[in-house]
Amino acid sequence: MNDSRDRLRKWVLIVVMHLAAVLVWQAWITFGKVEPYIMPAPLDTFATLLEFKTYRWGHNTLITAASVFGGFWLAVVVGVILAVLFSWSRWLNEALMPLIVSLNMIPKVALGPIFIVWFSYGLGPNILIAFSICFLPILITTTRGLNEVEPELIDLVRTLRASRWQVFTKIQLPGALPYIFSGMKVAVVLAVAGAIVGEFIASEEGLGYLMMQVQVSLDTAGMFMAVLMITAVGVTLYAIVLLLERLLVVRDARME
Amino acid sequence: MSIARREAEVEPFIRLQGVRKIYRGRREDFLAVSDVTFDVEMGELVSMVGPSGCGKTTVLKILAGLHSHEEGTVRIGNQSDRFDAARDIGMVFQQPLLLKWRRVIDNVLLPAEILGLPMAEARERAGHLLEMVGLSGFAQSYPYELSGGMQQRAAIARALVHDPKLVLMDEPFGALDALTREKMNLELLRIWGESGKTIVFVTHGIQEAVFLGSRVVVLTAGPARMADNFLVNLPYPRGLDLKTQEAFGDYTRRIYKLLGME
Asked: How far is CA A177 from CA A245, B207, B233, in A?
């Protein structure tokens, strides 16, 4: 009873705060007399949605979503698999981890032009850029989660002659889930950034590419709308991650 | 034939003789345990008491097969009670160590899953055990919904689910507040009475050791060695009023003296 009222309050607050932000935006334009090419009004921004022939919102958003989601889920799969291998082989961990940390220092944006040479323009290189920028946090949090098992719990299952696989599936992996999700939440933001940067430099479609196109004609409203759509893609992915977390991780174990 | 059998019958369930364990350090070696010699009869509740560093946890881990030892012999099981090291040990630690993502019943079932026991039977048994430890209404709860004492009850049920012959407890009530601890002592005696298990109970509580144990093994630190091993001739069932009796005081004084606290 109290729980559902709390939840309703939370949702109302979310909607109200977002609407309030739009109102502040509108008020600023109205009372601050800002030139529309510097800062468009919310209504002018939303109006660009109607000109879908010029902007191709549906297509461009789908393309961007594809590189964000593609890069993100690839990072989740590769990050978790690598972390599992690292937790099984200390040698592999010690050999590869320093290299991965060094590779992570490469500014991923700088890879854009190289990826164009290698893979030409398009979705593929963008997914790779998004992936390369967001997989390390998942690898690191998962590795930590897999190793975070109380030694006495290991003693307990050792007296039962538990196999390595049993320890992994019954204790390590479920225990690491909250860590995996905390890594995923960081990775969502990075994946969006990676995909957009990729579209700035190595793409002929997508919201990032659209922004570069309309910037030339000082179409600030179009650029704003593109930013909003990019944000919406990120928020959607974040919501999916939160939903999965809610389904898979017991409340007590969740890391806020 | 009949003489041989009688001799076999008097063989205790557990026999430790001159057990010695040294931890090899990088700079110097550390004597963890020495001169540990005692027997445990089937169905006994043996308290092992001593200050930190006396090696009581080490002895427990040697019994559990988790540690090796340098000298002496450790034998568990006899002709009438065979001992299978994989199936016949239940363990309870100071922390409940319940898996946060599993409901209480599924936590209790963990050993049965690992051992590959028939699950329908194990589930029924787990239900009975939860009833025995006073958690029958909490089978579907998650650990975080339980108090510390209740979590430790669940841990005890988990230690019993595969019907082990030997239960090893390492300061199981050490993290609980004083009142809950007294209550859990009474509960443990009841559970021990109902289950008939052989229990080795490690504690640094002198009163707790005497109150629970049918036998007390006293270990001292610096150097780590066994100082005493005696039967506690106080009848079960034991209640809290036992602690006011003179005989109880004699036993605790005997231990205090050994630990140089008199």
From this structure: 8, 43, 51
- Asked if residue B257 belongs to a domain, the reply is yes
Instruction: Provide the domain count of chain A.
Output: 1
Chain A residue whose CA is closest to B98: A153
- Whether residue A33 lies inside any domain: the answer is no
Return the pLDDT at B9: 57
Lowest mean pLDDT, pick from A96-110, B44-58, B78-92, B124-138: A96-110
Report CB contact under 8 Å: A152, B111. Answer: no
Q: Which residues of A166-196 are buried (b: 16+ CB within 10 A; e: fewer)?
A: bbbebbbbbbbbbbbbbbbbebbebbbbbbb
What is the identity of the amino acid at A50?
A: L
Tell me, rounded to whole angstroms, the distance of Cα A163 from its chain centroid.
Answer: 35
A127 assigned to some structural domain:
yes
- Residue B115 in this model has a pLDDT that exceeds 80: yes
User: Which pLDDT score is estimated for B257?
Assistant: 94
Query: Beta strand B14-23 with B30-40: parallel, antiparallel or unpaired?
Result: antiparallel
pLDDT at position A34 is 85
Nearest alpha carbon to residue B186 among B154, B212, B206: B212
Mean pLDDT of A229-240: 96
Place of tokens 């060695």: B225
For residue B103, which residues of chain A lie inside 8 Å, CB to CB? none
Sheet holding B30-40, edge to edge: B30-40, B14-23, B71-76
Structural domain containing residue A102? 49-253
Mean of the per-residue pLDDT values for chain A? 91
CATH number of the domain where residue B68 is located: 3.40.50.300
In whole angstroms, what is the distance from residue A25 CA to residue A36 CA? 12
- H helix or E strand, kind and range, residue B119: helix B119-132
Q: What is the mean pLDDT of residues B50-76?
A: 93
Yes or no: say if A75 and A131 are a contact pair by the CB < 8 Å rule.
yes
CA separation for the pair A89, B87 (Å, rounded): 29
Residue A28 lies in a domain: no
A160 at interface of B, judged by CB pairs closer than 8 A: yes
